[in-house]
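Minutes, structural biology subgroup

Action item carried over from last meeting: produce the structure token record for Deoxyfructose oxidoreductase (Paenibacillus silvae). EB confirmed the sequence was re-checked against the source entry. Recorded below for completeness.
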Amino acid sequence: MNSVQKLRWGILGSANIAIGSVIPGLQQSELNEVTAIASRDLDKAQQTADKLGIEKAYGSYEAILEDGSIDAVYIPLPNHLHREWTIRAAQAGKHILCEKPLALTEKEALEMVEACADAGVHLAEAFMYRHHPRYDQIREIIASGEIGEIRGIHSTFSFNNSGSSGNVRFRKEWGGGALYDIGCYSISAARLLLVQEPKAVTVIGMFSPEHDQVDMMASGLLEFDNHVGVTFDSSMWAAFRNTLEVLGSDGIIEVPSAYIARQDSSSNFFVTSGGERREVEVQQVNHYALQGDDMARAVLQGKELRFAPSDAAANMKVLEACLRSAEERTRITL
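Output recorded by EB:
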């Protein structure tokens, strides 16, 4: 029996998201294998490789790009390094899965998209939640008209890690802050479900002197066509939540755990229509694995990525405007 061809991955860095979620997801997927990991500290790379059963460990990111046996790279580096290493990886002929947010600005994101197009490689932003089948179910319910016309969306994502010293999320020049770290999910989800771009944004932020003046809390309003407002809040200094509510003229969709979907817990959501509330059962899957298989099918089978890199640049445009709105305390039109 012939073995299934797999996409061979190199990992740039040993960030927690890589070790705890993305690498295990790739290893559990159908069409991927992780063959190498790099760190600026070779010992750290080797320890991670040994722990996760990865064949090769490198002491530099350049070594990953020079390895001709690697097809694709995953970039979980701090946000300010996304542009540089995406472009360098593209020039080395590697396909790229880059952590969210794709960049620090729309301009940077567009440069990355262009560099990958010029090199003929695929680029995807690592919004794993979009690959979970429940979002297809949610979109189908909206399209069916069961909850009527969408009147509004409310999204939350918060946790409290304010006491975490040395966290890269607390470095302003590195693209730190709650908007870039988790507010991007709410923006991404709103654009996904409404299938349009916002016309204006207004955000109030809590910028903390204790955390290099990054936004530790941000509450926002995105204005869409048809008088639809999307409200959201994101925080790294508040109690934990991650929820999504879609309010329709005739019903409501509630997603209790909107962006975090663990295989060992329920990812079900609720629909209220006709005066009755029902629970929609959702298959328990590893959305990190599905994210990897989407890239693998694009590279190995010539299929289109589910989400084009231009979508990531569009999300970056909104995200950048939200941060500017919070900093300037003003409404920003797009």
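Discussion: The chain has two domains: 7-126, 129-288+316-333.
Next step: EB to file the record with the rest of the batch.
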